[in-house]
Design goal:
Shape of chain A: globular
Order of helices and strands of chain A: EEEHEHEHHEEEHEEHEHHHEEEHEEH
Oligomer: homodimer
CATH topology of the largest domain in chain A: L-amino peptidase D-ALA esterase/amidase
CATH superfamily of the largest domain in chain A: L-amino peptidase D-ALA esterase/amidase
CATH class of the largest domain in chain A: Alpha Beta
Largest sheet of chain A: 9 strands, mixed
Chain lengths: 411, 411
């Protein structure tokens, strides 16, 4: 999964609290309809932390996204407050005021400058925030901060919407002789779930990394993880990934010319890929995870275009759901992607078995291909036959359950 | 539906045989698995006819598409043979030879030059054509050509795959004092159905129109009809629309500077839009038809991009299926389309009711919006708030039945 399996990189249990110097909480404030569900999360760095963030490219953005982009300009933050159950998107100037009020409430409770508090929201679009509940939740969360495994889990749970399970990852590795950690928690099930929204990821590290390098690292890691997954091709108004670097590990601050930079990049990539994989596996109604690997492309863009077309095709996704080795759908999706390809040289492997060679069917028995398609983790390797570039995208199948979740739910 | 409701434009029953000077047949050749289903269609012009054609833009194209493009260069043809049940796509050089053999079989049976016979195929991808059956079918069809309403219907039926009903349209109108007709038949249910494929349309007219003008007319009409519909965003390897102009009406051949050109364009548009609408209404698993009208765009391209993003979003389509006025999904799909828009000025009407204004919810009661969403024909009018351009796309809902058709079917 990563080129960074050196420098003693090893997985750790837990998420945002795996690195030292952070506290967290997850509480129930009654924002979600279901009684007693955790819906306000709070993550605090004990020290001033470097900040990196990447956000949705949707032109329709939630209030919190616009707000966080302002905070990001300073490159430093102390706390992140998250609510689930309401996206605070398409809510106009009142929405903006509510986001500012959430930051102010955290700042007041923790005696921090309001400008160092980030806000993230996920849930229903177009509804006013129930600010009484939110502010009560913030007070409760501020009072219950801690750094135990329970706090780590409660935070991870408070950010969920239609997710069926929490999503966490953490690693430990050496940076110039100092042991440092990176951890994270994420949510996301549909890119937009039943009128709930969004992919969120919150990442922490106890390494000392200046904001500019941290931003480069997060953008790079997001590009090969969160930006390479698709459940339903519908990108959200609220997508947010934030990374806080507190420096509690005591390493010498990473420099742009340090050979250790690649190590840090690799470790962050590993955590982000793990979280992205967990999101796909928990995609709405998903029963199978599919890795779509396109190679032989004329350019990276072409490879990505073809991989996305395959991963987003409802016909490919329903074939995966039915366990049907319907390779014509995969090849024809690459065909309409706009990527340059040579139909007479195209190849397709389903896991290790050739399903299409030189643009035509192979003599692999259909029963053998069907056996591969029945596995819960699938890889489609598509060769476009015109170059040397490759890209990978992860997706899941499209099931009746997806329709049930998204059609039967009413706003 | 059209600006051409003048010159006495009126709808006629029937399809490809509504214009004079054509004969057709539809027979069963055993290509489809189900016993006795019609699967070979033949359409013949009594006179040499001008020819126009538009084809899939998929880089992976069926043998018949490549072949027809060659025929189109001459701008004239006499016959079209169509088989359903096998797409003859991803079949390499053998596929090409089979297409040529189909044309040759028609030419031999009807004593025509092979270069004036067009071929279209639709059905399973990547399987060899059962040429014995196909050639027997062609002989049978050639022997049973006729111009009765039954022949018209049999042809329309022979081109279907997962379609649940035939799709035909025809009009009559005056061209400089001469009564002329345009008719057509189409198939298409998924852009690719259960390993079946394709949108096909076959159009005839008894007007005399030179090939170049005919091609302009067909391209224009296809652009506002077949190219504006989406069932599942998966474009086929075999999409083909062909138009034959035989001239039996006896009008003076249309000239490029004739004021009647607009009348002919309008009438052809009407037929193509009718067929496109019938395809959407019969989309796999469809229970509702949705017209997505985007206005206030900075450019036509932007309007189309936003309309397509909305029409292709599985979350919008499942909301339509569930009858849920989930306007956040519609607005956010426009948001990620790449079209320029002003979130603070966006508006959305569901039929005539405002659901979103200035980027926020309106006070239209949710129950009233839900009533509109429950109708079988819906219009979403989305104003991007930045310009004056508009575009319209038609789509259908995404239902459990779509999953059933496409996941449970096995190749």
């Amino acid at each position: 999964m990563s080129s960074a399996d050196n420098n003693g990189l090893r997985d750790l249990p837990g998420g945002v609290l795996a690195p030292r110097g952070f506290r967290a909480a997850g509480v129930s404030a009654g924002i979600k309809i279901a009684q007693g569900q955790l819906d306000v999360g709070l993550l605090v760095s004990d020290r001033p932390a470097s900040l990196a963030g990447v956000f949705t490219t949707n032109a329709v953005r939630a209030a919190s996204v616009e707000y966080d982009k302002q905070v990001l300009r300073r490159g430093a933050a102390r706390a992140i407050v998250v609510n689930s159950g309401n996206a605070n998107a398409c809510t106009g100037s009142q929405g903006h005021r509510d986001t500012v009020a959430m930051a102010a409430a955290v700042a007041a409770a923790l005696a921090l400058p309001s400008s160092e508090v980030l806000v993230a929201s996920t849930g229903i679009i177009g509804e006013s925030m129930p600010m009484d509940k939110v502010e009560t939740g913030i007070a409760k969360a501020s009072a219950s901060l801690g750094d135990t495994p329970e706090h780590d889990e409660h935070f991870a749970r408070a950010i969920l919407t239609t997710d069926t399970r929490i999503k966490r990852a953490a690693v430990e590795f050496e940076l110039a002789g100092t042991t440092v950690r990176i951890g994270g928690a994420a949510k996301g099930s549909g890119m937009i779930a039943p009128n709930m929204a969004t992919m969120l990821a919150f990442l922490t590290t106890d390494a000392a990394v200046p904001p500019k390098l941290l931003q480069t690292a997060l953008r790079r890691a997001a590009d090969v993880s969160f930006n390479r997954i698709t459940v339903d091709s519908h990108s959200s108004t609220n997508d947010t990934a934030l990374l806080l670097a507190g420096g509690a590990a005591g390493n010498r601050e990473l420099a742009a010319d340090s050979p250790d930079l690649a190590v840090f990049f690799g470790a962050l990539e590993r955590v982000c890929r793990s979280l992205a994989g967990q999101i796909i596996a928990d995609g709405e109604g998903a029963t199978r995870v599919v890795e779509v690997h396109v190679k032989g492309a004329a350019s990276k863009d072409d490879a990505l275009r073809a991989a996305r077309a395959i991963a987003d095709s409802p016909l490919v996704k329903t074939a995966v759901n039915g366990g049907d080795p319907n390779w014509g759908r995969i090849v024809s999706a690459a065909g309409y992607s706009g990527a340059r390809l040579d139909p007479a040289r195209m190849e397709l492997l389903i896991n290790a078995l050739p399903a299409c060679r030189k643009g035509q069917r192979t003599n692999t028995p259909k029963a053998k291909l069907a056996q591969e398609m029945a596995k819960t983790h699938l890889t489609f390797t598509v060769d476009l036959g015109v170059g040397d570039e490759c890209e990978t995208v992860w997706t899941c199948d499209l099931s009746r359950e997806y329709i049930a979740i998204n059609a039967d739910y009413h706003t």
